[in-house]
């Protein structure tokens, strides 16, 4: 595998300094130009403020870069980047392409680099089926998390996904789900879904202890779910209207499979007047802070 760690990240991994991996698909494909670079810088500063080292991950010129320079971060945010899941890394390496890493590929590369903590916005999951159909589109994030000993801090899965099926897949794959100061599985823009979490932790130290104990008994990653901050949660009525209208839009356009989520998210961003975009940014920032605090607590054990 073609992978290079920045000097800062390599030194931190070698001496046990806490490191937090950050994905690049959020920046290249999830946020508008201009705002994406601002958010990328903010997330790295958030990690540093908590006492850890940020490691934003992307593929540049066919090499996985773990920890980006200022110029490389700007390149990710300003260039036309491929979206690379785990299955896409080999072709991108061989063809020397540029690409932004998803949750699945970021987790795999972080593990390869010796990093066990990863912050993101939302985990991929089982896609909603259109009426009269069965959903077969399941995000690679779930299987990678089941096979990769990395802790992913996120705000659950997006409400445009099938949350019930996603929670069931996580249970089947034996992935521990920890609610961070919550008893409910979050739904990205909303703090609570209809589903609970099997375990709750209330401090970084408690989370670190559970993660360490799981490492002695299981080989999967851990999902630490952190709800969107209360002040940025989307209004219930607005969320319901956007989701209902979005599903009608899918039927009207005949959208299927992997195209469902991007179309729904774009609908949320445009029809909410920026409310969903602000929620997205703030929940990622909150997850990054929690991940860094837990990483620091792990380093002190």
UniProtKB/TrEMBL annotation:
The active site is at 23 (proton donor), 158 (nucleophile). Its cofactor is Mn(2+). InterPro entries: Indigdn_synthA-like (IPR022830), PsuG (IPR007342). The keyword Transmembrane helix does not apply. Mn(2+) binds at residue 137. Catalyzes the reversible cleavage of pseudouridine 5'-phosphate (PsiMP) to ribose 5-phosphate and uracil. Functions biologically in the cleavage direction, as part of a pseudouridine degradation pathway. Belongs to the pseudouridine-5'-phosphate glycosidase family. This is Pseudouridine-5'-phosphate glycosidase.
């Amino acid at each position: 595998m073609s992978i290079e760690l920045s000097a800062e990240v390599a030194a931190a991994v070698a001496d046990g300094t806490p490191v937090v991996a950050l994905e690049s698909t959020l920046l290249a494909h999830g946020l508008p130009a201009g705002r994406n670079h601002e958010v990328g810088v903010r997330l790295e500063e958030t990690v540093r403020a908590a006492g850890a080292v940020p490691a934003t991950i992307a593929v540049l010129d066919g090499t996985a870069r773990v920890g980006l320079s200022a110029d490389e971060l700007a390149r990710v945010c300003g260039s036309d980047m491929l979206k690379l899941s785990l299955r896409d890394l080999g072709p991108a390496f061989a063809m020397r392409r540029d690409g932004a890493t998803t949750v699945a590929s970021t987790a795999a590369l972080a593990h390869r680099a010796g990093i066990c903590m990863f912050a993101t916005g939302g985990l991929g999951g089982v896609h909603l089926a259109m009426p009269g159909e069965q959903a077969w589109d399941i995000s690679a994030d779930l299987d990678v998390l089941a096979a990769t000993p990395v802790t992913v801090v996120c705000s659950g899965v997006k409400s445009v996904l099938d949350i019930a099926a996603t929670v069931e897949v996580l249970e089947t794959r034996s992935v521990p789900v920890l609610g961070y100061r919550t008893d409910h599985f979050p739904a990205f823009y909303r703090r609570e879904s209809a589903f609970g979490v099997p375990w709750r932790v209330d401090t970084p130290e408690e989370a670190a202890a559970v993660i360490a104990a799981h490492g002695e008994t299981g080989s999967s990653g851990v999902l630490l779910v952190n709800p969107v901050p209360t002040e940025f949660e989307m209004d219930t009525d607005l969320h319901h209207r956007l989701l209902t209208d979005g599903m009608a839009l899918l039927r009207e356009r005949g959208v299927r499979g992997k195209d469902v989520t991007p179309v729904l998210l774009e609908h949320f961003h445009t029809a909410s007047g920026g409310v969903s975009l602000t929620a997205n940014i703030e929940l990622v920032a909150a997850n990054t802070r929690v991940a860094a605090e837990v990483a620091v607590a792990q380093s002190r054990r």
